[in-house]
Sequence to fold (291 residues):
Amino acid sequence: MVKIVTDSTSDLPLDYASRLSIGIIPFKVSFGERTFIDGADLNHQQFIEYLKKHKCLPSTTMATPVDYQLAFSRFLEECDEDIIYLSISSALSGSYQSALTAQKLINDPRLIVEDGQSISMGLGLKAIGAARLAQEGCSKEEILRKVKGWRHVHAYIAVNDLSYLHRGGRVKANERVLAGILNIKPIISMKEKGELFLWDKVRGFRRSMRMIVDKVESFGLDLRKRTVAIGYSAEEELALEMKALLSERMDLGEVIIFSPGSAVCSHLGPGAVAVFFLAASPPGSRNPARM
Fold:
């Protein structure tokens, strides 16, 4: 059997990680001079409270080659299985290179390091899918082939408070003021390698949520056969509302409600809601091929 490992930027719910025996390598989050272990000594609610209190955005520190070496060695000692580590996208972080360095130092053929080419539940959904294939008895070669086929992460995020995008330098001060006056809300999407970009903007937050539902419906996918992840940055009610909106228009299968971690949430701020799913064609395609 193959063990799947990823990092805390995957935003993987702990119950899924436990149920599927997915290993999580935590990153560090710093607010000023205070540093926390992501997901360990700083939970989501505490992170949101810190985010509201501090004017500067937190910084996320990736695992070093030494951190990876220690973590990989522990996983290898604990099991006799092959290990596939799915990292945060190499386009967003140097973590993948650090993991490769650790892999060379360990020099164990059971360890494979793979660029996850995504972040948040884009990466989390890949880890879940890979772990389920492992439970079915698939070989590491079969799992890697399947993971490489999950190239396209569909992510649509409705943002309610532009001040955090402004703090991160993604929105200019005059744009933030004008958006506030006109009640304009951005919708963020994700490029192939996990980079966030402005997909659209509309007047009114609830309208932005409905636009996301329209976009998901336009693909004509059978969502009963795939997992949909719905995230919320502070208010779980928004995630449940988004689920209800999707359910009114489409039949859903497995739905994972999750809260984004520091890597994404620090830019979105409280009040954001997101929809993630995997497809074989990019978000720009109107009819994604079946996986």
